[in-house]
Amino acid sequence: MEQRFENQTALVVGGANGIGQAIALRLGQEGATVIVADVPGESEAGLRVCREIRSMKRQSDFIECDVRESSQVNDMVLALDGRIDVLMHVAGVAKLVPFLEMDEKHWDWTLDTNLKGAFLTGRAVAPLMVAQREGRMVFIASTNSVDGEENLAAYNASKAGVAALVRTLARELGVSGITVNAVGPGLIRTRLTETPPVDDARYVERYRIPMGRIGEPEDVAGPALFLASRDAAFVNGVLLYVDGGQMA
Q1: pLDDT, tens digit, for every residue of 192-201?
Q2: Which residues are catalytic, by number?
Q3: pTM beyond 0.85, yes or no
């Protein structure tokens, strides 16, 4: 496999499972030193990812971090020892709740994790990349950034916010040699989509997905790494859908 990230350090926030895990492993396969960060409850899974990356003869360490807490985010970035080439911000939560049943606790939990967490992480990483005069930030947004799927008001709002944040950072940080982009997955088979279980055929029919299936985490890893690679050096402020054609 091409070693596009040789001698680079990548931070994967939310890297213990699902899309984040697939991205972290792919970065290791392509030569990066990979720092996997996730909440304390995911430490065992995160350490497993690190061990798998180390089996590829690449360096990897796990950091516990709740992205809702600025002190933890700042400590996470301090642990990077002053160098970061790639930020992959994957951390996110979702739960189906009808709008008329939604309370402030659910709203705050979703927005604090998905949007505030992206803001805090980007804010902590940006000074290092500015000092380096280069860097790649990739945030996981969603097709829900523009598609107001029912029973997901908080999630939709948070992912719309992530897409807007990415566009803004692309304008502000581009002058420093930093690109900021987003991947917009459609329905991907992860723990977030296991409860309630997804009926693949019904979902594909309802959303008219031309590829005829829902996605796998590995389907997202390739596009995310493209946006972080030298091949995308002049790609900035983009929301790249990875949805089998759902948004076509």
Answers
A1: 776 667 778 8
A2: 155
A3: yes
